Amino acid sequence: MDYKAITQYLVKQGFRAGLECCDGVFYLVVDVNFGDFNIKLVHAAVSEISALPQFLLKNAALYGALAHVLNIDQTGYGHICVGDRDSISVNFEQPHLAMKASLQRHIELVRKAIENPEWNEQELVREFIANWNAILDPSDFHLILAAKEKHLEPIEVFNPIKRSGFGYASFYVGITEQVSDLSEFSSISLTNTAGRLSAGEGYVIPLGTLTPPPISREALPNWYAMAIVSLPAAELFRLEKMVSCRRTHRFWLVFNGDTSSGTAWFGIHLSPRGNGKRTLPLKYTNLKDWWIKPIRVTVFNKERVLPRGGASTSLSDKSVLLVGCGSVGGEIAYKLASSGVGELVLVDPDNFSLDNIYRHVLDECLIGIGKALGLSLRIKSKHPWTKCRHFSNRLLDFRHKDILQNFDVMVIAIGSPTHERLFHDFLVENSILLPVINTWVEGYGVGGHATLDLPRSKGCLRCAYIDQSDLSRGLASNLNFLEPNQDVTVNHAGCGDLFLPYSTLNAAQTAIIAADLAIGCLSGVVSESCKVSWKGDASDAQKAGLQTTHRYQVFEKSLQRLPLYDKHCDICNHD
Fold this sequence. Notes:
alpha/beta; eight-stranded mixed β-sheet; seven-stranded mixed β-barrel; 25 strands; 26% helix
């Protein structure tokens, strides 16, 4: 790039810009005055502009702690964070304009941090973790902590497992007494710490509203002492009582505090300069005999992990009965667990076989066990706050009112219209007010469907079975895209090897519309009985000699929730 031309352009725009060369590298240097402050912004020349050009603040330490300015150790420069540089669209075709736009962003941010101390302090606290991480070294400990929010409590800390390069086993793990709701399959639960040696003891210490973090590792002892002194008297008394009878060779202290952007978790590690076990130092005068280092903390609890992953803690007390754990049902189960549903009861009489691998969520190490059991194991290992139970029954085995009344929603993904209609009639005859979702995928990827039958709402499963030719009860769903009484299944080795041809994408798309209805029902977003279909390509079905329905030919409302109610349904219109 022509930095000489860029510099000339900036000068014409009123910037005090110049080029400097050091060890063969050109630097664009811009002088800026803010009242009594004179700052220098420095940009190292690059061969092309692929992101927002970066400027560093020279002699950053002279200006104290500045929001969004992170000191670069031993260089004297400060990294100015003006946002995600890669996500900003820059005018790489006109580098001089890109450089000007970037320079203006950097100047305005530094100006505000220097000239507005109140805003600067608020931003330092809001970006507490980023500023804390700035004083960390790559070699500093990383602790994964299973703990509830804002509880003063002890921590049991375990070392990483030797020769482990990834996963929970490669981290220090801290566990408190407040994590009893974790699945027994979670690698971070107390029951799964076999093979780990103790790494010392620790404490979770809530600090309330935070103040700005220390600006260097050298400032840690003073910051720690001030944090302890600032604790409410009752909390300090509890902490002193906790630590008075505990002696160890290392301590892990994890703090949490409130910022405008949420709760920040961070920590320090203390080890005595000499040999022997000691009690935790709580006063600045006692810290001279200790090594104190910052640590990186990742908190593992429901309140933090679920929202971060797009799940909802409001679904933690919801229970879903899922009958059918095949390719569609397996996807539904995962999506419900990932959404935060607290309990899943999984039902399927079939075993997982080698033939299922390519369109099922389970893997080959589970071949031969029941699909419901395998799915339960996988969900509990991945979603530690979802409780799972499994049964090998069939749908019609659940015609028991006392069982069904324990669930918030039932999802049926068995692809058996006869059993589904029999079960629906049982619900109606026994006045069982359970929301039920029926879902199925059609062969050759022509589409998939889901119906939500909400009690006390117009529309039921039978509405989806009205024969539109004579308005009688039909035997095939009027939602289908393939005409009834056609041989859609395929076999490779006779009748014992029949299967419905569709892809894992078809199964996943169908599972999405069913799971979306379930979550909408559980959260109260969907309050009327409805139906949802997705329409795919019928070319493979037509090559196989199959006929599509009139609905397929005119359907243009894929993925839309439509009313399930049909005015000709004798059940919905029964007085």
